[in-house]
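Hi there. Long-time user, first ticket. I'm pasting a complex I've been working with (about 278 residues overall). I'd like to know whether the download I got is complete or cut off, because the file seemed smaller than I expected. Thanks.
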Amino acid sequence: MKEKDKIRTVIGMILIATTVAGIGAWGYFAQKAGRNSQDNIMVLSIFLSMIIVVGAAIMILRQRGNLKAGLPIEDEMSRTIGYKCGSISYIASIWIACGAMTINNTYMEITLTEAVAAIVLGSGLIYFASYFYFSSRGG
Amino acid sequence: MKNIKNGKIALIMIMAVSLLTVLVLITFSKTASQKSISKIAIIAAIIILISSLRFVFERYSELKKGYPLFDELEKEVFNKSLIIAYITSIWWLLAIGWMSSLEIIIFRDPSQATGMGIIGMVMILGVSYLNQSRKGVLK
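Hi, the file is complete. Here it is re-exported in full:
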């Protein structure tokens, strides 16, 4: 079980490193290509992605700390919190999708990529915000 | 007695929401420009109708016997299926975005794509819940 937890933590750290590298490369090449009209959206997307990555990194570091202390990486409470945050994020993602649809039909035209980015990043942010909120409250 | 009354109200509300969803999907299938999308909407409507009818009748018979509408295990199973549905939905939305970029699926506008995304998310939740409840275990 401990070996499995260790592998999970290492995979998580590799995924975070890959994501950071991916975001960095994306920002670099986009900057190099000179996409001026998309600059604000790009900066916002990178900022939101980085917040999510930092949240994931904190989670992984906590798990690593637990592992070092000889504890399992997740207990019953953290599992329940994870389920709770997942359900909140799922409902939020549906509402963000509805919001994107409404904005596209009424206020301004958005592209599909922007809509998908809003749903994925928005729900990811809500997941981490609710995770840290419930963790600080103790479930 | 109060438990039965509240349960009955909840079941009536669940049935009403399901019927409204089915009606929306049928209307959507009539107005969709592509035949494949209207077929997906009809299939979703049928799945929702059958599952909700089965759910309501099963629960009503249990409610009459004096059981609560949702027990602890069911709440956990539902939360677990929600988090699985959330993670799968993120990939589903990304897949829609990629397929649209590669012109595998051509959408009229982002709203249509987002609508399809929401329908897919709900279907994923249904499949995830059925799978989890069939397993009947938490780990």
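A couple of notes from our side: Residues 89 and 117 of chain A are 15 Å apart (CA to CA). The mean pLDDT of chain A is 83.
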